[in-house]
Amino acid sequence: MTASVSAATVVSVNLDRGHHFSKNVVPEVVLVEGLGIEGDAHAGATVQHLSRKRWHKDEPNLRQVHLIHRELFDELAEEGYSVEAGNLGENVTTEGIDLLGLPRGTVLHLGDEAAVEITGLRNPCIQIDRFQQGLLKAVVRTDDDGSVERRTGVMSVVVAGGTVRAGDSVRVELPAEPHEPLRTV
């Protein structure tokens, strides 16, 4: 089943060859099935994030491609923060789609060829506060009942390779029901 999302687009693509917090905006990225983004430090079939690699090096890499919705930047600006595409380490910045509201297993078709399958929520860390003091608390909220809302995007794996550029469309393909909510990966 394909969900109807009007005018969902890629607004930026970003990569970094090193393990830095922010990624550089680039004209295009090449997604490689089962690996991630060609030339990005987090590409690989097994865990590549330095904080996890030491203990989980042989586990599958469920964090090959990180996506954030651009609308988060507007929300953060209202709270006094200045965040732009790539600043929070995302590979793909989208617009017009509620990434956090999608179920696990959703496939996002990026442009004409590439597709990623959402594996879960990004679990933000203290590096966000090193980028801008207080930002971690702004993107991870705890309600009075103790439930935690993480707003720093979703993680995914590449299920179809291809080139992705700013301006490409995003098409949503929901998994079969029952839908499984997103959890951190």
Automatic annotation (TrEMBL):
InterPro entries xrefs: MoCF_Sase_C, MOSC_domain, Pyrv_Knase-like_insert_dom_sf
Origin: domain of life: Bacteria
Gene3D superfamilies: PK beta-barrel domain-like
Pfam family, one: MOSC
Entry GO MF terms: catalytic activity; molybdenum ion binding; pyridoxal phosphate binding
Start and end residues of each MOSC domain: 24-173
UniProt name for this protein: MOSC domain-containing protein
